[in-house]
Amino acid sequence: xxxxxxxxxxxxxxxxxxxxxxxxxxxxxxxxxxxxxxxxxxxxxxxxxxxxxxxxxxxxxxxxxxxxxxxxxxxxxxxxxxxxxxxxxxxxxxxxxxxxxxxxxxxxxxxxxxxxxxxxxxxxxxxxxxxxxxxxxxxxxxxxxxxxxxxxxxxxxxxxxxxxxxxxxxxxxxxxxxxxxxxxxxxxxxxxxxxxxxxxxxxxxxxxxxxxxxxxxxxxxxxxxxxxxxxxxxxx
Length: 236
Fold this sequence. Notes:
- By secondary structure, this protein is mainly alpha-helical.
- It has helices at residues 2-22, 27-49, 55-72, 74-88, 96-109, 111-123, 127-147, 150-153, 155-171, 178-199, 224-235.
- The protein has one domain (2-235).
- The two termini are 34 Å apart.
């Protein structure tokens, strides 16, 4: 659990730095930084997605994941959770929910989150999550400067998500293969790219509008390769 703990801690500390020290930077600098971060997110997302070996499985994962996500309406649930926390802290009308949801998905969906957590659980190797902490910390500073304290609270789902993967990977050691990890990472990377597109407001999308990708509702897609390839391996 050392890797997940360090990652969550860095996100929390850097979010505080962004809120306290960087929040008063001129708007034009903030806008340009957000665009630069958005482009970087898209690059890393697409780069990871191209590492897949089963293109049809990737497409199937997105389709099945989208159906399951819409059925469960994960996006709405996460926004409700963010809005509830926003009300509890008396911060209605702010960006808490948007910051919490966007940062949580971004930090949890990437290939580094999945692979790094598995390495932590299977090998006790935390180097990937340490490297991810540097990236997440940089993004947290920019995000929290514009979206506020919701970004800080994203450290909580990051800790539980990555810690859960680390623990489950130990229990599922006999099922997990490099092929499964690669395909899960590729799907997760596409979700990261989607966050980048939303961050750039591609197509003129507005928050909650039809042109915005509800990335949270695509989260189940990450686990479709595990079910498909794992089941194929068990049952031939």
